[in-house]
Amino acid sequence: MHGAQKYPLTQVMGSETIKMVSMTQNEWQNGTFGCFSDPMTCVKGYFCAPCMICQNGEKVGKGGAVYFLLSCCFPVCAISMFRTATREKYGIDGSDAMDWGLGICLPACTNCQMALEHKARGN
């Protein structure tokens, strides 16, 4: 990704500022197979995928009964749509075609990637 800029995250506690980590703003913080870096997210994504799909949807403003039904009946469509919404929310470079390709071919990994992205960005 050309032009990627890293911005330090800081947390202010009283009069003390703590530098946390550096985050690239226009890229995914975890790769498609990054779910293995957080075993609990990986386990949740595998054993309770519909729950994680719905949580990812809620974090991008796509909650409610219609999206719940979509997540349960057509999870690949929900994952692909929520990945596009996540990418747009955080200004991550990519395309709808890539979102749908990953959602169709690697739905579990893509679902976990979104959960980790929300976690990394504090949502």
Keywords:
6 helices; globular; 123 residues; single chain; 2 strands; alpha+beta; two-stranded antiparallel sheet
Query: How can the largest sheet be summarized?
Result: 2 strands, antiparallel
Based on the structure, what is the oligomeric state of the protein chains? single chain
Q: How do the SSEs run, as a string of H and E?
A: EEHHHHHH
Helix count? Answer: 6
Give the helix level as a range of percent. Answer: 55-70%
What does the average pLDDT come to?
A: 84
Strand element count: 2
Q: Rounded to an integer, what's the Rg over CA atoms? A: 15 Å
Q: Stretches where pLDDT falls below 50 for ≥5 residues?
A: 4-13, 15-20
Strand percentage: 5-15%
Strand ordering within the main sheet: 1-2
Shape: globular
From the N-terminal CA to the C-terminal CA, the straight-line distance is 24 Å
Structural class, judged by helices and strands? alpha+beta
